Amino acid sequence: MPQHPMRHAMRKKLDRAPVHLGERRGRQLAARMKEEAAVQAGDAVHPRRDAGDVVRGNNHGHALSQVLDEVVEKFHRRPLQDHYEYLFVDGVSVRIRLVGAVRRRMVLCAYGITKTGKRELIDFMITKAEGEDTWKGFLLDLQRRGLKGQALGMVTSDGGAGLAKALAFVWPRARHQRCWVHKLRNLSNKLKASQQACLAEARDIYQLSHNEREAIARFRAWRSKWKTQAPAAVACLDKDIDSLFHFFQAPEKLWKRVRSTNVIERLFVEVRRRIRTMCAFTTRQSCERILYSVFNHMNTYWDKRPL
User: Which domains does the chain have, with CATH numbers?
Assistant: First the structure.
C-alpha cells in the first residue's frame, strides 16, 4: 500500500536528521519530527511519548486513530464529580481544514480547582462560534454529567456577554469573576500610546491591594485621575468593577490563579506547539485527538501536584 506523501516526506527527514547534528540534538530533532509526522497523519501522541510507536504505516495509523476517537468520546461523556470550588471557562480560536478550506473554530474549555487543591482540565467542545447558545450547551452538558455546582464558589471568565448570561443561567449562585488580563487588554485598546501610565496604574489596583476595600479605594483614585484624560478607558473598567474583585474572597495563595483565565491560554500555547508545522489541523478529528492528548497529559501531571 503506498504511503501518504506527507508521511513519506517526514520519514525521509527522520532518516537524515541526525547526520549533520550532534548526537543529543540529533535525537531531539528526530523525536520532534516523529511527533510532527504523527500529527500530520492525524494521530494524537502523548507529549512525552515517542511518536515512533505510531508512525508505522497507514493501516496501523488508521487503527490507532479509531482507538483514540473512542477514547476521546469516552472522555467527553464520562460522569463528573461535583467537587469543584473554582471554575475557569474560556474560548480559544483554532484553524481546521473543513470541506477543502481552512476555517476558524472556537474551542470552549473548562478548567477547575477542587476543595482539596486538585487541578483538572474538565472538558472542551469545538463549536462554530462563541455565543450564549453554544456556551449554554457546553455548560449544561457539564451540569448534566454531574457538575451541579453545589461546591462551586466562583467562576472566572472573560467579559463576553453571551458567556456571562450562560453562566448566570446554569450556576446562578456562583460568583462571576471577570478575568483581569482580558479586561486590561480591552483597556489598552482604548488608550493612546502616550497613556500607558493609565494602564500600569489600573494593573496596580489589584496587584498592590491586600483586600477588596483597599482595591476599591485604589480604583476610585485611579478613576478620579483619568476620567478626563481617558474617559473611554475609565468607563470600560467602571462598568465591570463589581465583578473584578471577587477573587479577594479566595485564599490569598490562590489570588493570582483565580483572577484570570491564563491557565487555559497557556494550555493552547502547548497545543499550537504541537501543530507548529501546519497552518491548521488537518481534520476536526485530529483537532479533538490532539486537544485530548494535551488535556490528558496536563491532568496526569497535576494529579500528583495539588496546590
Answer: 1-77 (no CATH), 80-178+261-307 (3.30.420.10), 180-260 (no CATH)
